Amino acid sequence: MIIWLVKFIEAYYLKKILGDPYYKLARNLGYRSRAAFKLLEINKKFKIIKNGFSVLDLGAAPGGWIQVVREAVGSKGLIVAVDLKYIKPLPWSNVVTIRGNVENEELIKALKNKFNERFDVILSDLSPNITGIWEIDHARQIFLTYCALKIANNLLKKNGAMIAKVFQGDLFNNLLMEFKCLFSSVAMVKPKASRTRSAEVYVVARGFKAY
């Protein structure tokens, strides 16, 4: 009975994935994840990431956003990608991958020591391991975004920009106020590639004021 149930669930999710047009498109275009289309849409609308920019990508695995950023910044830009998970190597010399934990303040020190200048843009696509218990998942994701904001406070250039995934819920408004304190312009967007039932939105913050 248990084996049958597991096979049924696997078949259900496989059918769901294969029926996803963004999943198919990502495979056809060589992107590592369907999330690439979220960043493509956001950057097309807001023009945050530009040629020659330095970009810090938090929660970067498996690398779909890295690919989009590399297309935008070109060979003269810099992409530093951080994740707890291993990121398979990419064929560009200006992409640096780091295994690190955004909750650990040692990451900030390590990035400061390795890179002399602050970043033009910080991206956060951070998500916790989903438990299925909404209150826990929401609180954990909000906490991770606060960690990303702390990193931005230390590593983002003045007037720089940030794009961050956030789970909407009870804790969302306080987090949004934090963004508004740190940036001169804050907008929210739900890309077409985000699943309809998903609580995720993306905060697009420009004009970093702190430090």
Write a concise synopsis of the structure shown:
With 211 residues, this protein is an alpha/beta fold.
- Helical content, roughly? 40-55%
Nearest-integer average pLDDT: 91
CATH topology of the largest domain: Rossmann fold
As a percent range, the share of strand residues is 15-25%
At the first level of CATH, what is the class of the largest domain? Alpha Beta
- Tally of discrete structural domains: 2
Number of strands: 7
Judging by the overall fold, what is the CATH architecture of the largest domain?
3-Layer(aba) Sandwich
- Total DSSP helices: 7
Low-pLDDT segments, ≥5 res: 4-17
Shape: globular
Textual characterization of the structure:
With 211 residues, the chain is of the alpha/beta class. The chain folds into two domains: 1-30; 32-208, Rossmann fold (3-Layer(aba) Sandwich). It has helices at residues 2-18, 21-29, 36-46, 64-73, 106-114, 134-155, 172-182, and strands at residues 54-58, 78-83, 95-99, 119-124, 156-167, 183-189, 200-208. It starts with a helix and ends with a strand.
Brief descriptors of the model:
7 strands; globular; alpha/beta; 42% helix; 2 domains; seven-stranded mixed beta sheet; 211 residues; Rossmann fold
